[in-house]
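retry 2 of 3: previous attempt timed out while embedding pyridoxal-5'-phosphate. Reduced batch size to 1 and resubmitted. Inputs unchanged:
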Amino acid sequence: MSGYSPPEWVKDLGAEAAFAVLAKAKEVERRGKKVYHLEIGEPDFDTPSHIKEAATEALRRGETHYTPTLGIPELRQAVAESVKRDYGVDVSWEDNVAITIGCKQGILAAILALVEKGEEVIYPNPGYPEYESAAWFAGGKPVPYNLSIEESFRMTPEKLAEMITPKTKVVVVNTPGNPTGVIMSEEDIKGIVDLSEDHGFYILSDEVYRPIVFDGLKHVSPLHIKRSLDRLVVADGFSKRYAMTGWRLGWLLTPKEMMPYIFKLLNVMTSCPPAFNQYGGIAALKGPQNPVYEMAREYERRRDIVVEELSKIDGINFVRPTGAFYALVDVSKVLDRLGLRSEEFVIKLIEEYGVALLHGTALGSNGEGYIRISFAASEESIRQGIRRLGKAVEDALKS
Ligand SMILES: Cc1ncc(COP(=O)(O)O)c(C=O)c1O
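retry 2 succeeded.
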C-alpha cells in the first residue's frame, strides 16, 4: 500500500463512463460474444484527407515546436472568419478567439475563468459531464437543470427563471444536445438571453454539434441573438463535425476582458495546442465544407433508422432526435419491472443481448431511467443493436 489518499474534491469528480462501458463490452467480446456498439459518442468516419494532409505536411515541414498559448494566428483568424461566415458576427481573432485542446478544455477554462467559489453553474442534466466536473474544479456549485421527456428535453426560460439566484454565474446551453439529440428553439434561446441580460449571468454555449442538424432545421446560438460576446462564451471544436476526435482541437470565443485569464489558464494547463494539428485545423475551416454536410446527412439517414427501429418496441419512450447523433430512450418501465438501475441494465444488455449502450446516469443523476443510443455507427450495428434492445425489453415486460 502506498498510503495514497485522494483529496475529497478529486473523489467527487465525475469521469466519462462511456469508456468504462466500452471496456466492459470488449471484455465480453474477448469471451467470444458479438457485441454491437452504440455507446461511444464519436464519428465512425475518418478525418477528411485534405485535413490529414495539411497536418502531415506541417509535421514534415518541422512544425513540431511550441506555438503561442492561444494558438497560431492563422488558425485563430480562420476561426474568426468561420464565425463571420456562420453567424454573420464580427469577432476579433486577437481579442476573442482561443484555440483549445478539444471543446472539453474550452469548457473547463471558461468555467474556471468565470466562477468564484460558491457561485452557481446551471447545466443540463442529463448532459455532457464536463459541465458539472468543471464547476466542482472551480469550487463552484453545480446546479442541475433537470431535463424531462415530458417536456421533450427542453430547457425552458420559464423553469430556468425559477432557478436563478443572486449566486447564479453561468448557465450552460448545449444545442444540438448530448445526450438528448434535440436542438433548442430560437424562442427558448432568446428567452435565456433575455434572462442573462436581466440577471447578469453568463451563458456558456456548447456548440460542438452545431452543423449536425436534421429536417432542414437551423441551429440557433445565443450569438445569433446577441450578435456580441457580451456575457457570452461559445465553446466549439473540430471533433464531431470534421470527425477529428483524436486530434484534440477546439476553440473558445470569449469577451475581450476575459481573454487574458483564458490565456493564463491554458498556459498553466497545456502551454499551447499541438503545433502540427493546428495546420489541420486551418485546412478544416478553410477547405471544402461538403464533408461536414455529407456526414450530417448520413447521421440524418441513420436517425431515421433509429426512429424506425425504436418505434417497433413497445414499453419504451423517446423523443425523435433533431440533431447530434444520439437518441435518449426512456426505459423506466423496464427497469421497474426488472428491479434494476440503468447502469445494471446496460451490463445486462452487453452480457446477455450483445448490445452496448450508455446508461443515463453516466450523463448525470437525472439520467436514471434512460439509456443513450449513439448512432455514430453503421446501419448494421444500429439495426441489430436496437433489435437486441427490443428483445431485452420484450423479455423484461413479459416476465
Ligand atoms: C456536448 C459535448 N461537448 C463537448 C464535447 C467534447 O468535445 P471535444 O472532443 O472537442 O473535446 C463532447 C464530446 O462528447 C460533447 O458531447
